Amino acid sequence: MLKKENILLVDDDIDILELLQRHLKSLDYHTYKAVSVKEALYILKDTEIDLLVTDINMPDIDGLQLVKYVAEHYPDMPKLVVTGFPSVEDASSVIKHGATDYLTKPFTKAELEVAVKKALASKEAKKTFKTPPVRPVATNGYADMIGNSEAFQKVAEIIDRVKDNRATVLVRGESGTGKELVARAIHYSGKFARAPFIAVNCGAIPENLLEAELFGYTKGAFTGANENRDGFFQAAHKGTIFLDEIGNATLPVQNRLLRVLQEKEVTKIGSQKPEKLDVRVIAATNSDLDELIQKKTFREDLFYRLSVVTVDVPPLRERTSDIPLLVDKFMQKYGIEYKDRFVRIADEALEVLKRYSWPGNIRELENVVQRAVIMCDGKITLEHLPDELKYKIDFPEKGFKTLQEKEKEYIQEVLLSTQGNKTKAAEILGINRKTLREKLK
């Protein structure tokens, strides 16, 4: 399970940032990522951070200024500095401003772990952090989601950490795993719940309309633009915009989205005047964004802006212990809707549901239970489940062998009948021993 500490990582070197996150994730710490001091300040503004890990040498504003800022604005927050260009002056300056340790690149995972534990221990000793502790997550559910598995609890813990801040979140997972439910849980369980939640499926809107729908347009901006119109981003002001299937967004849309995330403002199509926005962006994808980046169809810098916090929603096959809970939930939902009463399920039917791999994940499970409730008379049995869920016999496909394979197979049969006597086998086959040896190679 995740540890209680939140760690903010700041470095303009993406490789180092990914390395730090990978190491700390393996140690069960929860991390936030920032590629600049400006982005780090946005995260610090409304997020409970227990430790800052920052580089010193960065463009525009260096990490030393961030250390100084945190020393005054968050005096009880420990600070760990990493740099590839060590100097006595830098070391004395960061220590002077409260850094608990100073790591030189490259460093080992063990060195990082020791430094992080030392920094967090210094915070623990002070016991003066004023933000309230994270509320424990319910053991079997979060918002409209349900589960008891460790995989589910990890997702619920991250939701609990980000629900009250505006950090950009990237939700990754296979189709049907409940990515939109995660986004809604983040929004509706936090302090922005009364503000708008705008869900946009980037894959369902035609490419030529997506840009206008997201950012709005002015009268005359293009053919058919007969009036000024706000987009989804303006509609989500003060709240949350959920961008589903973000991997389908075109490059022009990605360019505009990057500006929104960097500058916290949006410009309508046909306008030169930017409008300030206060909006949390949650994006979701079932695509492999790394592959899209390699193909140059998705911007790498946008990926890092979107993935300040990443939530990996596990497929149902990795949380099979949650299947009985989900089945109960769907039976209650559809039993009341279709039968006006609760529906039960036979043990053997439940075992089939638990055994199946669910390539369509929770959405597929819900569809199967919904159909079974409609077909049953109060109790779901095996007959109410689709055949593809039930046990199958995999018959080997009958294929043709090559002439050489058939010849060798026949020679082996003859040798078997002669108890391995090659001279006798050669006589039966009508060939000499030398030819027989060649054919057996």
TrEMBL record:
Chain positions with 4-aspartylphosphate modification: D55
Keyword Phosphoprotein assigned: yes
Signal peptide: none
Domain Response regulatory residues, every copy: 6-120
Domain Sigma-54 factor interaction: 145-374
Keyword Transferase on entry: no
Sorted UniProt keywords: ATP-binding, DNA-binding, Nucleotide-binding, Phosphoprotein, Transcription, Transcription regulation
Alphabetized CDD domains for the sequence: AAA
SMART domains tied to this protein: AAA (SM00382), REC (SM00448)
Matching InterPro entries: AAA+_ATPase, AAA_lid_NorR, CheY-like_superfamily, Homeodomain-like_sf, HTH_Fis, P-loop_NTPase, Sig_transdc_resp-reg_receiver, Sigma_54_int
Name this polypeptide is given: Sigma-54-dependent Fis family transcriptional regulator
Organismal lineage: Bacteria, Pseudomonadati, Bacteroidota, Flavobacteriia, Flavobacteriales
